[in-house]
């Protein structure tokens, strides 16, 4: 899950595994595999950075045996 900011300033937590596409104009529009869209303040490169950081964190965590 990554935390982003809606246009009204409210934080929103998204499951980054459900992101289908991200488009940027004045704001970023994230389309999810569910068909829902979320409009956020963060630019494309910041969204990408947060997704990559989250994935690294998940895959770097040792699994219990």
Description of the structure:
The chain is of the alpha+beta class. It has one domain. 26% of the residues lie in helices and 35% in strands. It has one helix and five strands, in the order βββββα. The chain has one helix at residues 44-60; strands at 2-5, 11-14, 19-24, 28-32, 37-40. It has a three-stranded antiparallel beta sheet, with no helix packed on it. A two-stranded antiparallel ribbon has the order 1-2. A hairpin with a 4-residue loop joins β4 and β5 (37-40). The longest helix has 17 residues, at 44-60. It is elongated. The mean pLDDT is 94.
SSE sequence, one letter per element: EEEEEH
Q: SS-based structural class?
A: alpha+beta
**Tally of individual helices:** 1
Shape: elongated
Average pLDDT confidence is 94
Radius of gyration using CA atoms only: 13 Å
Terminal Cα span: 24 Å
Summarize the biggest pleated sheet: 3 strands, antiparallel
Number of DSSP-assigned strands? 5
Assess the beta-strand content as a share of residues. Answer: 35-45%
Total domains:
1
Low-confidence stretches: none
**Percentage of helical residues?**
25-40%
Q: Strands of the largest sheet, in order across it? A: 3-4-5
Brief overview, please?
The protein is of the alpha+beta class. 26% of the residues lie in helices and 35% in strands.
Keywords:
alpha+beta, 3-stranded antiparallel sheet, two-stranded antiparallel ribbon, 35% strand
What is the element layout, followed by pairings?
Elements: E1 2-5, E2 11-14, E3 19-24, E4 28-32, E5 37-40, H1 44-60
Antiparallel strand pairs: 1-2, 3-4, 4-5
């Amino acid at each position: 899950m990554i935390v982003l900011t809606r246009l009204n300033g409210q934080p929103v937590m998204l499951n980054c595994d459900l992101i289908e596409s991200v488009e940027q104009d004045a704001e970023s529009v994230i389309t999810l595999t569910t068909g829902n869209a979320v409009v956020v303040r963060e630019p494309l490169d910041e969204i990408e950075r947060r997704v990559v950081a989250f994935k690294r964190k998940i895959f770097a965590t040792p699994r219990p045996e």
